[in-house]
Specification:
The complex is a heterodimer of chains A (132) and B (135). Chain A is mainly α. Chain A has one domain. Chain A contains 5 helices and no strands. In chain A, helix 3 runs antiparallel to helix 4. Chain B has 3 helices and no strands. The N terminus of chain B is likely disordered. In chain B, helix 1 runs antiparallel to helix 2, helix 1 runs parallel beside helix 3 and helix 2 packs antiparallel against helix 3. The termini of chain B are far apart. By secondary structure, chain B is mainly alpha-helical. The chains are: A mainly alpha (132), B mainly alpha (135). Chains A and B meet through helix 3 and helix 4 of A and helix 1 and helix 3 of B.
Chain lengths: 132, 135
């Protein structure tokens, strides 16, 4: 049965499906859900960015908000792309029975969220001082 | 979850749980049903990712219209359509989803392309506002 499957296996990319053996499908499915969760994390950052740029159109200090919004959108895109690559790496590792790669996007995500939070906190502070 | 994913169960084609009804639509014959409902959970993950992307596109389209960027709005609306098309036709799904019918890689690539395009449009909206600040 596995010979049968290997013979008719034309799944892409070959760099993933051309190596190793078929893993337990539950591991593949879990890998897929993890990638999708990363995609949604990226989408959440983009959503925050779009919401901020809408807010900026009637805020007092629109420049900072627009800059933060732009950065959030770009980080969201980078996260989605990194989800694709880490899905590939993990699927390869599963097929080759190797240890799973570390979630390398996680420290970047945390760093980016902290920086965005500091920027927005600074904005709130400046805005509050402005109103005094 | 605890433990090494490469421990005992990994790689073994373990029959888990009782076999499901053999003639469920979309299910593979002779394939045991996963009591952890992993295929179903994966299909739901696809659906909520698609829903999030489509909603994002709609919000972006409305926001771009509001800021006087009709081209961006049309592009965002096109992305909503693309997401819906991908959702209707391309999402991997099915309770008995077999490894050899997996569409994960192409569907994931299209999903990422949609999200990156949404991000690009969002960045265009923001940078247009920044440029307007300076002019």
């Amino acid at each position: 049965m596995s010979d049968d499957r290997a013979a008719s296996d034309d799944r892409r990319p070959r760099s993933v499906y051309g190596v190793g053996s078929e893993p337990d499908i539950r591991f593949s499915l879990a890998n897929e859900r993890t990638a999708l969760a990363w995609v949604r994390t990226g989408l959440a950052l983009i959503a925050g960015g779009v919401a901020l740029s809408t807010l900026a159109s009637f805020a007092d200090l629109p420049l900072l908000l627009d800059l933060v919004s732009m950065v959030a959108c770009l980080i969201g895109a980078a996260l989605a792309v990194s989800a694709l690559f880490s899905w590939r790496r993990t699927e390869r590792a599963l097929r080759l029975n190797l240890p799973l790669p570390a979630p390398s996007a996680l420290p970047w995500l945390v760093g980016a969220v902290v920086i965005l939070a500091i920027a927005l906190g600074g904005y709130a502070l400046v805005d509050a001082l402005d109103r005094l | 979850m605890t433990g090494d994913p490469h421990g005992g169960q990994h790689g073994s084609p373990d029959p888990v749980g009782p076999a499901g009804p053999p003639d469920l639509p979309g299910s593979q014959p002779n394939r045991p049903r996963d009591p952890g409902l992993q295929p179903e959970r994966t299909a739901l993950a696809w659906q909520r990712s698609g829903l999030a992307a489509a909603t994002m596109g709609l919000v972006l389209a409305l926001g771009a219209l509001r800021q006087g960027l009709p081209v961006v709005a049309v592009l965002a609306a096109a992305l909503v359509l693309a997401t819906v098309t991908l959702g209707v036709r391309g999402f991997p799904s099915g309770a008995g989803r077999a490894a050899d019918s997996m569409l994960a890689a192409p569907a994931l690539r299209r999903m990422v392309a949609i999200v990156v395009s949404l991000a690009a449009l969002g960045a265009v909206v923001a940078s247009t506002a920044v440029l307007a600040e300076f002019s």
